[in-house]
Inverse folding.
């Protein structure tokens, strides 16, 4: 029982000495040098989102006036109502399927490979 | 309340937040530079260059940090790889290094101060044992974390730490009884 105890004490003594030999190194401009070499900051997500929303809104306004005050919306709605119900169902089903396939493809593409052990 | 490393990494990932990254550098610079100084045998200039390279690589590849290990463990791994690359470039591969060290080894060497003896004893260890001892005993990494840093099996890390410790204790035996 004494031997493992002695061994532990020796290890503790050594670990303590080693830790004492790792004093805190003063930064002395190291962080500044690293930061100076970083690539330029890209636009933040918030900025990019704001730009996307603004451009989308602008495009909507332009489209509204370019299409004669949004007459195409009413026309499309009337066209849809006049369609047979099975065509509307098929169209909705096809759209859902398309979104699902695209979503799955995007998920597979962005998935990371399993980590090597 | 101070932010955790994980919080800071998330900020860097989300907003490319340089300020958050500078905080990470500030927190870990001492440990990384200290480890590299020991690995390069106290060549402070080279160690700082390697540490700088390691932090730049960390920034560029921060998206590959998955949070499975501690940020410091991930950083040590990058720093250790930078050191290995540099050693290869300088043709100071581990085998050559060890051969030279074994030739230099002189257990009778007695320095007046413990510090000098300890540094000397460390520098006499083969690179793989020195690195394992530094990571586990000095920097407080678990064996598992050290295995991740060094990309070697857990058993090998344990063996290297054990052997390294034994050699250090042998060299420093005279101090231990004081």
């Amino acid at each position: 029982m004494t031997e493992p105890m002695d061994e532990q004490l020796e290890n503790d003594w050594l670990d303590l000495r080693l830790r004492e030999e790792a004093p805190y190194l003063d930064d002395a401009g190291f962080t500044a040098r690293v930061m100076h070499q970083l690539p330029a900051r890209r636009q933040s997500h918030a900025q990019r989102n704001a730009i996307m929303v603004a451009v989308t809104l602008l495009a909507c306004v332009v489209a509204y006036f370019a299409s004669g005050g949004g007459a195409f919306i009413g026309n499309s709605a009337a066209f849809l109502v006049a369609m047979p119900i099975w065509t509307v169902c098929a169209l909705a089903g096809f759209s859902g399927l398309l979104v699902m396939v695209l979503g799955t493809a995007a998920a597979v593409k962005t998935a990371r490979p399993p980590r090597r052990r | 309340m101070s932010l955790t490393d994980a919080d800071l990494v998330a900020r860097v990932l989300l907003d490319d937040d340089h300020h958050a990254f500078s905080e990470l550098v500030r927190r870990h610079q001492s440990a990384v530079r200290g480890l590299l100084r020991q690995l390069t045998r106290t060549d402070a200039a080279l160690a700082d260059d390697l540490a700088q390279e390691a932090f730049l690589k960390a920034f560029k590849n921060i998206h590959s940090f998955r949070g499975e290990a501690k940020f410091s463990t991930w950083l040590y791994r990058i720093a250790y790889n930078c050191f290995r690359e540099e050693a290869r470039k300088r043709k100071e591969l581990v085998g050559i290094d060890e051969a030279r060290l074994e030739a230099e080894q002189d257990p009778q060497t007695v320095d007046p101060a413990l510090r000098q003896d300890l540094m000397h004893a460390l520098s006499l260890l083969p690179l793989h044992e020195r690195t394992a001892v530094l990571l586990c005993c000095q920097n407080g990494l678990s064996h598992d974390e050290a295995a991740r840093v060094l990309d070697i099996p857990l058993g090998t890390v344990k063996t290297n730490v054990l052997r390294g410790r034994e050699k250090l204790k042998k060299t420093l035996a005279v101090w231990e009884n004081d």
